Amino acid sequence: MSLSSSQIREQAFYLIFDKEFNSDLSNEDILNLAYETDVIEKNQKCEKLFITCCNNAEEIDDIINKYSVNRRFSRISKVALAVLRIAVCELKFFTKTPERVVISEAVILTKKYGGEEDYSFVNGILKSFVDDRKATNDSSGD
C-alpha cells in the first residue's frame, strides 16, 4: 500500500520522536526497530525525510532556536520539537511541497500529539521562518 504525504510525515515524526529518547541508537537501528515492531511501514520517502533530518540536525535545531523567541530551546516539548524538525527539514531540503501544506500538516500533527499551546507555537515558528526566507529572497532579487 502506498502512503499519503501526511502518513509519511507522521511516520517520520514517530522516528524523530523516538530518536529524541534513543539518541545512542544509530539511524539504521531506529528504522529497523520501527519496522520490526510494526510502528511504521517501509517507505523510501519516510526514510529519506528521517535521514535528512538526522544528518542536518544541528542546522535544523539552529533554525528552530533562532525563531523560538518566547521559549528556550530546552523548554520546547518533545512533540513540538519532533514536528518542528520534520517541518523545517521539509521546508529547507524538500522544496517541492508548498510551504502552506507543510505548515498546515505540522499544525495538524501537533494538535494530534502535542499539548494545548504547542500547535500555535509550532505555527508561529514555521510562519516566521517562511516569512523570513521570502523577505530574504525578495530583497536579493532587487
Major sheet details: none
Structural class: mainly alpha
According to CATH, the homologous superfamily is NusB-like
Radius of gyration: 15 Å
Percent range for β-strand residues:
under 5%
Rounded mean pLDDT score: 93
Provide the CATH topology. Answer: N-utilizing Substance Protein B Homolog, Chain A
Compute the separation of the termini in Å.
47 Å
- Please report the total strand number as a whole number: 0
Q: Would you identify the CATH architecture? A: Orthogonal Bundle
Instruction: Please write the CATH class name.
Output: Mainly Alpha
Which shape, going by the Cα principal axes? Answer: globular
Helix and strand pattern = HHHHHHH
Helix content: over 70%
How many structural domains? 1
**Discrete helix count:** 7
Low-confidence stretches: none
Describe this structure in words.
The chain is mainly α. It has a single domain, classed as N-utilizing Substance Protein B Homolog, Chain A, CATH 1.10.940.10. Helix content is 73%, strand content 0%.
